[in-house]
Amino acid sequence: MVVNKKNNNNNNKKSQSKTKRKVSKGRAYIVTSYNNTIVTLTDAEGAVIAASSAGVVGFKGARARTPYAAARVAEDAVTKSVKYGLAEVDVFISGPGMGRQMAVKSLRNSGLKILSLSDTTPIAHNGCRPKKQPRT
After folding, report:
1. Stretch 12-27: mean pLDDT, rounded?
2. Is residue 136 very low, low, confident or very high in pLDDT (cuts 50, 70, 90)?
3. Which of these ranges, 7-21, 75-89, 114-128, has the smallest mean pLDDT?
4. Does residue 85 contact residue 23 with C-beta atoms inside 8 Å?
């Protein structure tokens, strides 16, 4: 004979609601490639608050790399971060894409105060020493 035992421990616990943390200052990382733009908003320690890309907003293919798409991506990320109270950001831009300036402009127009702006695009400094020429 099998007896069904129900565990009622979960029913006795009070429901605990998660408290959203309030962040007033954070960082904005804008990564622009030749094909896409990704905007990530974090707090001061680097924990992600909101992120968005051209595909999330609804752009596919060649339209995802346009400056207009970059502006929409930045607006979407700011909209997602409103519930955390983000007001001021340090902006870090990386990559050679077309949407660099439009993404920064869109962050500013969406109500975020930009404290600093820095370009973190890696630059090659002539690289490694080349292989020696073969003797003939």
Report:
1. 72
2. confident
3. 7-21
4. yes
Residue 51 pairs with which residues in a beta bridge?
A: 40
CB 65 within 8 A of CB 54: yes
Query: Which amino acid would we find at residue 21?
Result: R
Say how far apart CA 108 and CA 122 lie, in whole Å.
Answer: 25
**Taking a C-beta distance cutoff of 8 angstroms, is the pair 21, 47 a contact?**
no
Q: Which residue has the higher pLDDT, 126 or 32?
A: 32
CA 40 to chain CA centroid, Å, is 1
Please count the other Cβ atoms lying within 10 Å of the Cβ belonging to residue 14: 5
| 68 half-sphere exposure, CB direction, 13 A CA radius | 5
CB 23, CB 90: distance < 8 Å: no
Within 10 Å of residue 68's Cβ, how many Cβ atoms?
14
pLDDT over 70 for what percent of the chain?
A: 85
Instruction: State the alpha helices, DSSP H only, in 6-117.
Output: 9-12, 54-57, 67-81, 100-109
Task: Kindly list the structural domains of the chain, giving each domain's residue range(s) and its CATH number in brackets, ordered by start.
Answer: 25-119 (3.30.420.80)
